[in-house]
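Supplementary material to the annual report.
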Amino acid sequence: MSWEAVIGLEIHVQLATRSKIFSGASIAYGAAPNAQACNIDLGLPGVLPVLNERAVEMAVRFGLAIGAQINLHSIFDRKNYFYADLPKGYQISQFETPIVGQGSITITPESGSPRTVGITRAHLEEDAGKSIHDLYSGQTAIDLNRAGTPLLEIVSEPDMRTAQEASAYFRQIHTLARYIGICDGNLAEGSMRCDANVSVRPTGQAEFGERTEIKNINSFRFVEQAIEHEIARQIDVLESGGTIHRETRLYDPDKDETRSMRSKELSNDYRYFPDPDLMPLNISEEFVSRVRDTLPELPDARCRRYCDDLGLPAGDAEYISSDIDRANYFDQTVSAGASAKQAANWMMGELSAYLNRHGTNIADSPVTPSQMAQLIQRIDDATLSSKTAKTLFDALWEAGADNSAVTEVDALIDSLNLAQVSDDGALTQIIDDLITANPKQFEELRGGKNKMLGFFVGQVMKATQGKANPQQVNEIIRSKL
Amino acid sequence: MKYVSSLREMSQALADGEVSSAELTQDHLARIKEVDPQLNSFITLTEEEAMAQASAADALRSQGDRRPTLGLPIAHKDIFCTKGILTTAGSKMLGNFVAPYDATVVTKMADAGMVSIGKTNMDEFAMGSSNENSYFGPVANPWDTDRVPGGSSGGSAAAVAGGLVAGATGTDTGGSIRQPAALCGITGLKPTYGRVSRFGMIAFASSLDHAGPMARSAEDAALMLSVMAGFDPRDSTSAKRDDAWLADMLHSGIAEPERPMVIGLPDQYYENSSNQESVTAARQELEKLGHTFKRVSLPHTDAATPVYYVLASAEASTNLSRYDGVRYGHRCENPTSLQDLYERSREEGFGDEVKLRILTGTYTLSVGYFDAYYLKAQKIRRLITQDFDNAFAEVDLLLTPTSPTPAFRKGQLTDDPVAMYQQDLYTVPTSLAGLPAMSLPCGFSQGMPMGMQLIAPAFREDLALGLAAQFQRHTDWHLKRPGEIN
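Predicted assembly:
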């Protein structure tokens, strides 16, 4: 029997606000434990939540970016459960009326064609703190710095059929969240995490199979691996006559397996009800349209523009548009005068190699877009050869990284003596000298042995340290024949 | 000063230089030490802090500060967080809790130069109508120490009635300012929901919790309200209001009503009350002053008490989840697991009434019961609010008894929770509607003071205070003092 998987993701995006969703405490990463937990985050008696307007704006940004309905009236509910890192004994979330309604997003899996994934809803909520079980023997340490961090939980439709699609969807949400500036996208610091709902069914069957939920996956690779593994496990169970039980599972990347965390039948009754400490959230059409006005050009639109208007190949356009910083770098380079194709080549070649090697983000690249544009222009006007251009790039990188005085492109070309020698007189002199020194080879060339042309060009390049304009050299030698 | 007089009188004496705030504060502290062993109205006396505040106020006065509130001693119900001072909410759970911050109400009163002399006793987490639910022992009614002072702000009510302090803050979720005010013969005001910040006030039921003044007279209550009121950006349910009469009352006292009032008498409040006579006498007094009366109907009044207990318990059940023994408050000895920590800390830390309400509230919010209880109660709450809106289309104010009976004996109702809950019959509807309501003394029954309730439209405390002040200018019920403890 052949099987088909059905996958839906719940992605928690940590919003890039300065302070928490219901208090003024900072959400900066890496502070000493509990240093960023104020009276409100600690759930002290008598404290009250006040909604962070920036978080609302970011949720609306996301909703607009996926073409979703923005609910002008939404409600914050209390989700009640006891846990040591949940200070109030409830989490403030949105249950029945989320701020963002139905929308969709287009994904392009590595293998396979683009497809649309439905997004059911997205709602605002606060994060819990962190329990650390391995710090003190026999005791659990609680760090409440994360408590109250604003999250946007994005719930997809069960529209994905393969682990690759799920991973592509996760990536696409990541790209989009960074594009619209609502998340720093730092997976290692937990800025985006996802839960995957996975079930399998015989190919062709309409009804879904029973599903399991894999909790708290925090990398693109692990999403794919965890789902891959869970699909295989479920097929195994079903093929050996077993049944799948609704349960929560945890992915262990070290062992590459999922294991049962708790059974859903025993799950909490969260006793959701509207939080009486917060008024219903009412936003105006004007607020929404103000947010709409500040939305940047989105990845799909950019990709299309790169293909249609700038003539980039689809692969290049996708690569460049898939990251906001990369796309901005590209746009700035092109608008500073570089040709689009050259800019793309340099970004995907030399620049990308240097960035990788130094672990530098493109937004912090020592070689600026305007330098990159000038470099490309100097290739186009034959000042630089492809070889000297690389030398210049390296020099620009070093200079930018050191904050050296000379970062002006033409000045560097001069001081490093990288310009091609295009002086007819000088080149003619060099060639005349070479003919005198190599009479035999010149005779062979004259006799029609065209291979000897390469010999002379090579010798000229050697004599000029590669700076001679090869086309010009060719012409001068031919004129001597 | 022989002993504590009214806030306005003390304000005048301070302004005239007859007495200093330090002397007044010492008088208060001496009076409390002498009398409070009979009443148990205070949980904590903050003698040192009070004397420091009093000296600071005297210093300001010597520099020309003439604010009417400067140097006036008051007390806070122990439900308001006070920085560096024990804040218990009447519970063993918070028996060791020293708040690291001040409630907005506490800050505002301190900023007005008022001197906080201590924290008053209360029913645990404000749950009760007799002050018998305090971990720190019951409070006695100064008029008869065998009787209860009402609750949950019974400590504040007894302290004011007994002349231990002229004004104290209270909180009212279903009647917790008004019922003890009535039972102790003082004046208490529950303002409009949103008028006074809840920040730093330990929550019982967030959508019903109100902070307000308890004092000797409408004038003193108005003085306190003008300090306590105001928008607070730290309370999302706080109202942005700009009512000039608040400042006018602070500086010039309460003005006479501008015109005769049309006062509504809701039928449903006069059906089962043994408090008819004193309210009837008060009505005659008000008629003499030119006001007229009109019968009105508030048809959903019967449903108010059950609706209140569903909603208040639901909110309380989750508001009290934070008391888990993890971060502060009572923690059981040697927990063997997280579950054990929760179970024993809460079992040991909460009293019976609190547990009863947590259980009830948890039940009504559970899957399968939520619609039948919580949602239905919310719908009826809207109908109750609608009743008041309809009535206020016809009348300016409503006049009702505050409580069905005078103060009862300690222990009399402890085994009869339903009878205890009936104490709130006349106060709960306005809590649900969030409307301003005040209780003021209007007579005696069985030798115990009786109160009448004035209910005003939202944010029209001025109407109730205006009528109350006029009534008090022509009567002396509010000037009666209990003899027994003097």
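The first strand of chain A starts at residue 3 and ends at 14.
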